[in-house]
Amino acid sequence: MGCCLRQLQLFSTCMAFSLGASVGTWKGAIGNWSMFIWCFCFVLTLLILIVELCGLEGHFPFSWDNFLITCNCYSALLCLSASIIYPIIYVQLLSNSHDWDRTIISTAFSCLAFVAYAMDVTWTRAQPNMITGYMATVPGLLKGLETIVACVIFVFLSNTSLYLHQPALEWCVAVYSICFILSSVAILLNLGKCDNRLSIPFSIFQLVLTLLSVLLYTTALLLWPLYQFNEELGSQPQRSSDVNCSSGLSTSVCIWDQQLAVVSLTAINLLIYVTDLVFSARLNFNSS
Predict the structure, then answer these.
(1) Are residues 271 and 211 in the same domain?
(2) Which is nearest to 86 in space by CA: 37, 41, 40, 44?
(3) By residue range, what is the domain housing residue 141?
(4) In the structure, how many helices (H) and strands (E) does the chain have?
(5) Contacts 24+ apart (CB under 8 A), 255-262
(6) Residue 178, C-beta contacts closer than 8 angstroms, at least 6 positions apart
(7) What is the crossing angle of helices 64-93 and 29-53, to 10°?
(8) 24, 80, 144, 209: which one has the fewest Cβ atoms less than 10 Å from its Cβ?
(9) 147 and 286 together in one domain
């Protein structure tokens, strides 16, 4: 079963990457992100398949099953993000192009890859005597989602003209970076089995980090739309005020849409952090 799923993952990510490359997806930041995801997942899955076929799982200084379920969880989340972001951008941009069909098919293969990775996680967890890895738990999945949404935000922020003109917006970028680091630290501590080396229980440590992230993201959610869509502050409150958006001739995401994407993703990630906070608080309450 695992080998069959691995082959399906290889096929679907390869097809998504190939079709995306054939329509020039790499020309934009979102396209680069999607192409990176499909290529990364393909290479990672190929390496895992080679290791399993050669029977080398026991030669690593860490739990192979834990590593496997972590890779599959992250690959599933990554493919899910590509399956959502890629069609939203490129189906619209290429709606009048002969490449539109290939964009749709590429999205379909990306969705298939997500399903294959999710099935792999489910199948791995269903094995007898399987110790569930951190990334397959609710806190782990939430932390993974937080980092991936942050990565998508960073993709849009690769256009520095969105924020360099305003210190408040630079603060928002700092918030995204700080919270990404905090979530990554929590994941790495757990995966590296270093969570028991802290002077406080890891659950409390994670709760504090999540609370801090919620507070920081709240400031970003307030400041970003205020300084991006307030006409009194020199911004463009309407999409029609952006010439690139209203012309319909642009082959990339216009500035206003990028600004809207960032605030939307900020709201989504804040919701994920709040969910994480509630779940962590409940776990601490039940264990006390």
Answers:
(1) yes
(2) 37
(3) 137-288
(4) 9, 0
(5) 255/159, 255/161, 255/162, 258/156, 258/159, 258/162, 259/162, 259/224, 259/228, 259/229, 261/156, 262/153, 262/156, 262/157, 262/162, 262/224, 262/228
(6) 213, 216
(7) 150
(8) 24
(9) yes
Cβ neighbour number for residue 140 with a 10 Å cutoff: 21
Phi-psi region of 217 (alpha: psi -120 to 50; beta: other; left: phi over 0): alpha
- 3-state SS of the chain: helix, strand, coil percent to 5? 80, 0, 20
Amino acid at 130: M
Residue type at position 104: I
d(CA 80, CA 58): 31
B/e letters for 182-201, b = 16+ CB within 10 Å, e = fewer, are: bbeebbebbbeeebeeeeee
Cα(238)–Cα(260) distance, integer angstroms: 11
Tokens of 104: 């749709």
Considering the domain architecture, whether residues 126 and 155 belong to the same structural domain is answered as no
96 or 106, which is more confident: 106
> Within this chain, do residues 160 and 33 fall inside the same structural domain, yes or no?
no
**Which two tokens mark 107?**
């999205």
Q: Are 34 and 85 in contact (CB under 8 A)?
A: yes
* 132 & 47 share domain: yes
Are 3 and 127 found together in one domain? Answer: yes
